[in-house]
Specification:
about 40% strand; mainly beta; about 120 residues; 4-stranded antiparallel sheet; 11 strands; single chain
Length: about 120
């Protein structure tokens, strides 16, 4: 058995055979412009260091909300009976169980005194 999920989205989809990923009970999935969105009672409301986000799906960030729907920017496509997850669509990297946004690291490095640029 395989499953797909993200810390911010909880359990999203699973499969027990060679077919597509199917939503876990209680989860609803939709693909908008190639990005997987999830509606579930188990979604994170935000990160501990920030207030719960009220973000439209076009705004940047690892966790984006649009009403009852949320995404972490994973790319996907709808297939007969489920979805196929294609990978992350932003500059977020998961390392040591933490999501690190490359743009945030770049901003911190360029804020150092003698650094003139970072990529």
């Amino acid at each position: 058995m395989e499953y797909y999920g993200a810390a911010e989205l909880s359990f999203v989809a699973w499969r027990g055979d060679d077919g597509p990923l199917r939503p876990f009970p209680g989860a609803r999935l939709r693909v908008v412009d190639g990005v997987l969105w999830v509606s579930s009672p188990y979604l994170a409301e935000g990160y501990l260091s920030t207030p719960p986000p009220v973000i439209k799906h076009s705004d940047p960030g690892p966790l984006m909300r649009d009403g009852d729907w949320a995404t972490v920017g994973d790319l996907a496509r709808s297939v007969d009976g489920g979805v196929e997850v294609l990978g992350r669509g932003d500059a977020a990297v998961v390392t040591g169980g933490h999501t690190v946004v490359a743009e945030e690291v770049e901003a911190a490095v360029t804020a150092l005194g003698d650094v003139t640029g970072a990529v």
